Amino acid sequence: MSDQITPFRIEIPQHRLDDLRHRLANTRWPEVLPGAGWEAGVPLDYLKDLADYWQTTYDWRAHEARLNEFPQFTTVIDGQNVHFLHVPSPEPDALPLILTHGWPGSVVEFMNVIGPLTDPARHGGDPADAFHVVAPSLPGFGFSSPLAGPGWGTSRVARAWAELMSRLGYHRYGAQGGDTGAIVSPELGRIDPDHVIGVHVNNLGTFPSGDPAELAGLTEADQARLELMTTWGRDMSGYAIVQSTRPQTVSYALTDSPVGQLAWIVEKFKEWTDPSAALPEDAVDRDLILTDVSVYWLTGTAGSAARIYYEDARTWGQAQNRSPVPTGVAVFPNDITIRPLAERDHNVVHWTDFRRGGHFAAMEAPDLLIGDVREFFRRFR
Question: Is the pTM of this model over 0.85?
Fold first, then answer.
């Protein structure tokens, strides 16, 4: 198997951008009940305004250029094309760190954290906190496409990440991730404990095993997160049920309609971001949201990205071996991270509760996430 690493630049053909604008201009809009709000899905008036902005004002080329400021590469691992950002620090003693995004995220999530992580001195920090950052696109997501075949669940992704870090010459490194990345990163620690020195996660999903003793004596904060977990399962899990059972079927609509893809993703930016935000763009910059959505649309990866839910669904809720790797947990508003359950499955040595931010911490509260990552990894340098 070749371990060749090839430089990569994002260069979306102009005809794809022209097609996007044409489709947006000719959207077939549904009827809605008068006065309908977010409780039944994305409101029509809101989505029309956002789609109009995407069509007439948003500048993909500007954000493409910004993404291309980060050195990017591709390599083939286990038969799968893997795209990744690799941004070495100017500090020679920097610690290698692999960042893993989730769904509906992408490497776009990390655009505002890579600079401070790799070059803290330039951003008002301590040079001793520097990292060499590796940020791959999950297989089937964005530029890690097309998906080479079935079987790319989170365990296989973790094995691929271990190979990627070895291929880059990093034999002592940390891992960080949120959402799907908060599954992949601890699994990477389980798979490669001789090289992974620490794992930091945000939006860590924790789920009861059914033993009532696990939930005895929960703090008030953990009780609230348990209630939120129940609400999520009842009212907010439709996307996960669809993507874990019929990812191919939903892919036709999301790949054919940019407004469909936009609604499918922006709903999550509404539901999962800081609860104090009235609208998604009150939590995350509107252009940054549209850059993330544009990556899905322009690469046509709605279906292949959804596939990771399908691959992992058969193992949801199953017991797993406790990770031996020291783990840091950052908990943001709207996370369903219950401490006793986290400590059941992970070697938790660091825990931080934040009062602002949300699911997309690297986009919503990059300062808080950067600070917590720096603090956690100081003990391992």
Answer: yes
